[in-house]
Design brief:
heterodimer, A: about 350 residues, mainly alpha, two-stranded antiparallel ribbon, globular, B: about 375 residues, alpha+beta, Cytochrome-c3 Hydrogenase, chain B, three-stranded antiparallel beta sheet, 8 strands, about 45% helix
Chain lengths: ~350, ~375
Amino acid sequence: MVDSVVIPLLKIVIVLNATLVAVTYMVLLERKVIAWAQSRLGPMRVGPYGILQPIADAVKLMIKEDITPNRADRWVFTAAPIISMVPALIVYAVIPFGPEISLFGRKVSLYITDINVGLLYIVSVASVGVYGIILAGYASNSKFPLLASLRASAQLISYEVAVTLTLVSVILMAGTLSMVGIVNAQYNQHVWFIFVQPIAFALVLIGGLAETNRAPFDLPEAEQELTGGFHTEYSGMRFALFFLAEYANMIVVSSVVTTLFLGGWLPPFPNTPVLHALYYVPSWIWFFLKSFAFLYFFIWVRATLPRYRYDQLMRLGWKVLIPLAIANLVVTGIVKVMLL
Amino acid sequence: MATETIHHGAMFDTNELVLNMGPQHPSTHGVLRVVLRLDGEKVVDADVVIGYLHRGIEKLSENRNWTQIVLLTDRMDYVAAATNNVGYCETVEKLLQLEVPRRARFVRTILCELQRIASHCLWIGTHAMDIGAMTVFLYAFRERELILDLFEEFCGARLTYNSMRIGGLPLDVPPGWPKKVLEFCDIMDSKVGEYEELLTHNRIWLERTKGVGVISGADAVAIGLSGPPLRGSGIPKDVRKDEPYAAYDEMQFDVPIGTNGDTYDRYLVRLEEFRQSLRIIRQATEGLPEGPIVGKVPRLIKPAAGETYHAIESPKGELGYFIVSDGKSTNPYRFRVRPPSFCNLQALRTLVKGHLVADVVALIGSLDVVLGEVDR
C-alpha cells in the first residue's frame, strides 16, 4: 500500500510543486541574469534583491482581468493555455532526478516512474504542447496571433524531425528507451554520452532551443514583429499559463539533455575507481547542477543573440540539422555494428 | 484596401492578408502605421500612413517670433534636438547675414556631433532590438545617458534642449565641461567596439541584414534619400563636407560609404559615423578657441524681406529649413522644414516589397525615422 500508492503520490505532489516553484523562480533568474548581462540590476524592490518578485507577479497575474476577445473561439481559446501547460508538466513523470536511494530504511527511487519507452513518451508528449500555441493563434481570431501559429507549426515540423532523429543515435548507444536505462548505460560505459555523441548533443541543444521557442528561435512570440505573437490576445492567468509552460519546457529540455548526454545524476567519468570521491556528492545535486548549467545557457543565449527569420530557421532545420542528424545516425549505427 | 486573390497555378488560390502594423506596435518607433498586404508572410505591398504625431509646427512657427521658434524645433526630431536648434539658428543667421563667433561655431560642432552619437545610440539600440538582440539596446542607452548628462550640464535639459540662440549660444560652456567631453570620447571609443562585438560578425545578424532592403545609389538619389541610408548605397554625399556649416570646414573627418546599399551597409556606415563623430569632437574640443559666444545680434530680430534655404547634416540625413521673411513682422512669413526622416521614409515601400514581415521592422529601423520629424 505504502510503496504502491502513498510514495508515488507523495512524489507526484513534490515534483509538481517543485516544478511550479522552480518555474516561477526561473522567471526571476532569467530577469536577473539578463539584467547582469546588460549591466543593470533587475528586480530589486520586492524582498531583498527581488527574491519575492515571483510571488508579486503571480498575485498580479491572478487578480488581473481575464479578457476573451469578442470574436474569439471561446472554447478553443480557453483550452489552448491548458493544452500547452499540461504536457510540459506530465513530462516530469519519467525524468530521473536520481537513482534508488534508501530513505528512512525504505528504498525510494528519485523518479516518479521508469517506463520502458521513456524517451519516446517525452518526445511525443512534448510535441503536443505546440498544439496549444497553434490553437491559441487560431482561436484568437486576430491576425498577429494567426501568423504566430503558422510560424509555430512550421517550426515544430522542422525541428521535431531533426531532434527525434538525433535521439535515435543516443538510443543506439544506450540500447534502451528508458531514461533510467540510458543513465545506467552511461554508468556502464564509463563515459557521458556528450563525449561519444558531440554532434548529437549540439543538435539536440539547438533543437531544444527551437522547440521551447527560446531566442534565437522565439519566432512565434517575436514581440518586435508580431506584438507578442500567439499570446497577444491573452491576459491574466491564461497568459501566465503560456508563460509558465515555456519555462517548464525549458526545464524539461535541460533535464532531458542532462540525462541523455551528461549522465543524469552521475558525476563526471562515472564508474571510474580513481574518481570515487565524487560519489559523496548526492546524486540529485549532480543532476540539478547540470540542468542549471543548461538553464543558464538558455538565458545567456537569449541575452546575446538576435532572432532568426522564419525562412532562415526553416532552412537551418531542413538543410543543416536534418542531414546532420541522419549522417550522425548512420555513422553511429555503422560504428556500433563494427565494434560489437 | 481590397484584398486580391493570389493565383498559384495548379494549387489552390489564396487570398492576400491585410495586416495593419501600427500605430500601436512595438517596432514602429512611435506612431507610424504601415498597412501591409501579405502573401503568407511575404509582403506584397506596403502602404505607409503618417500624420499621427502632427502638431502643426510649421504653421505654429508663423505665429511665433524668431527666438521662440527654437523651442519648437526641439520637438521635431526629439532625439536630436540640438541639431535641429543649430539648423534653425544658422538659417536665420543666414537670413540676417550675421557673423557667428568662432567659439560659438566650435561649441555648435561639438553639440551636433554629441547629438549624432546620442541619436545613433538610440538607433543601434532599437534597430538591434527589432531584430531580437536586446542587450545592445541597454548598452547603447548606457552611453546615451552620458551624453544626456553632458547636455544637462550645458543647458539644463536632457531631451528638448532649447540649446541655441540666433547669433550664438545662450550660455558659455561650464568650466571643466570640455574635459568631461574628452573623457566621454575615451569611454565611447571602447564601447563602439562592444556593440560591434555583439553584432558585426554575428552570423544571425549578418543573415538578417545582408541583402535585405537593397537600394541602388541611383534609386536612392531618385527617391531623395539622404544621410546614412544614402551613403550606405555608395553616394558620398554629406552636407558637412559639401556645404560646411558651423566649424566643419576646420575639421578633419571621413565620410564613410557602403557598397551594397543593404541594411548591413547602412549599419556599418552608422557605426563608422560613431568613430568619425568622436574624431570631430576631439578636434573641436581640443581646439576650442576663446572669445565671445554671441555675435552682433539686433535687439529686435526682423530680417529683411527675402527667403533662404539652409541645410545641415542631422543624424538622420539632410535637415533643411526654408524660411521666408516679409521684412515687416517679427515672425516668419513661411516656415518650411525638409525633414530627413520624412524623405527617407518614402523609401520604405520600395524596400519592403518581396521581403518578410520580420524584415519590415528591420527596415524601419534601418531607415532610422523619428515620427516627430516626419509629421512635425
